[in-house]
Specification:
397 residues; alpha/beta; 7-stranded mixed sheet; 3-stranded antiparallel sheet; 13 helices; 14 strands; globular; binds pyridoxal-5'-phosphate
Length: 397
């Protein structure tokens, strides 16, 4: 036995750029980036075949029975695809129950407001999970609600929401579930055999480790068929995008050809790693190594173990007056790691992502960099302020 870190199993970024410990864009494999060196004609049969492969592989990853679901890729970042999903599947006279416990749930509610569609909001604050019983009660109270909108992993705090109990409550009440699994799909299981949902959305630059440029919706074919005429937007009309793709094999408007080529390579690497279970195992090991090391340094996580996602982890900012986040960020960057500021409203925090082309050896180096950064700032304790711990106790209660 030796205490020495093993060599990384995954090669470090070839251009020498820092690791992105952020939930997308994230650190990608060189082979993924290299796919972007050639150009593709958007109408050409080669690119049409690439689009067909992409759709088929994503459907296979979902694991739904043949013919029940379809995959609609759409240009733009994740928010464009969330807006497309909400605008396309919610009938104009429908009503959504939006479950929020962080920035992305609130963004879904804000999107509903922009769309001018009816919705009610359960806002659990920064990080308390929306529970199945609350969903059941809200649906029983308001028969006008047709759809529930849930966030799988709320990336702002890193909380892994209880999607199975939310899905169960929604199905039991005869309503339809729309899932934002932006930062989860490809790593977190979302088996339609066990979790009933109408549609889910994710993007190229999250757990499948592609580059930014498009997202995709995996939806029941029946929902796609019924979505005709619902959308508020020409460019974000998922039914129209789907119908055009089905007919021509092409994207309706200019596709992100290079990002698609890169994504196909990312899908190959995903499969080679053992698909969703393989990826989850690596991200979980990344999280466990990083969290254990940060705790040894005195840092505390915002969330209790049970809610800690293998995607991104929020840490309280240390109370020590010598700690300054901007200096910490720069010290980490100088050591090759780009971390993420916090997004909580009650207490100061920062986040470290576990996803992207990196392994436990990298995570050990992250902890060493954090230790050195603390020493450089003269921070003697990484313990959070008492009010942060009180806030966390409130969560546990
Ligand atoms: C859960 C979730 N929803 C939506 C988004 C928005 O995606 P984008 O920033 O690509 O528009 C993100 C981005 O991280 C996310 O994590």
């Amino acid at each position: 036995m030796t205490n020495q870190s093993p060599q990384p199993r995954i090669a470090p970024p070839k251009m020498g750029e820092p690791y992105l410990l952020t939930p997308g864009p994230l650190t990608t494999d060189y082979a993924v980036k290299a796919e972007m060196l050639r150009d593709w004609g958007s109408w050409d049969s080669d690119f049409r075949a690439m689009t067909a492969t992409l759709r088929a592989k994503l459907l296979a990853m979902l694991g739904a029975p043949a013919g029940e679901f379809d995959c609609v890729p759409l240009q733009g970042s994740g928010s464009y695809c969330v807006e497309a999903m909400l605008g396309s599947f919610l009938p104009r006279d429908g009503k959504a129950l939006v479950l929020a416990n962080g920035a992305y749930g609130l963004r879904a509610a804000e999107t509903m407001r922009y769309l001018g569609r009816a919705f009610t909001l359960i806002d659990k604050g920064d990080y308390l999970p929306p529970r199945g019983a609350e969903v059941a009660a809200a649906l029983a109270f308001d028969p006008a609600i047709t759809h529930v909108v849930a966030i799988h992993c709320e990336t702002s705090s890193g909380i892994l929401n209880p999607i199975a109990e939310i899905a169960e409550a929604t199905a039991a009440a005869g309503r339809k579930l729309l899932i934002d699994s932006m930062s989860g799909f490809g790593a977190l299981p979302l088996d339609p055999a066990g979790i009933v949902f109408e549609a889910m959305v994710s993007s190229a630059n999250k757990c499948i480790e592609g580059v930014p440029g498009f997202g995709f919706v995996l939806a029941r074919r029946a929902a796609l068929e019924a979505a005709k005429g619902n959308s508020h937007s020409l460019a974000l009309d998922l039914h129209a995008q789907w119908a055009y793709m089905e007919k021509t094999g092409q994207w309706r408007y200019t596709p992100p050809t290079h990002a698609v080529a890169a994504f196909l390579k990312a899908l190959e690497l995903h499969a080679a790693e053992g698909g969703q279970p393989g990826r989850l195992a690596r991200y979980t090991a990344n999280r466990d190594t990083m969290v254990a090391g940060m705790r040894r340094l005195g840092f505390e996580t915002l969330l209790a173990e049970r809610w800690l996602s293998p995607i991104i982890v929020t840490f309280f900012t240390p109370a020590d007056p010598a700690f300054d986040f901007t200096r910490f960020y720069e010290a980490m960057k100088a050591r090759g790691f780009i971390i993420y500021p916090g997004k909580l409203t009650v207490v100061d925090s920062f986040r470290i992502g576990c996803i992207g082309r990196m392994d436990e050896a990298v995570m050990r180096a992250v902890v060493e960099a954090a230790r050195d950064a603390l020493a450089e700032m003269g921070v003697t304790s990484a313990a959070p302020p008492a009010e942060a711990l009180a806030e966390r106790a409130r969560l546990a209660g």
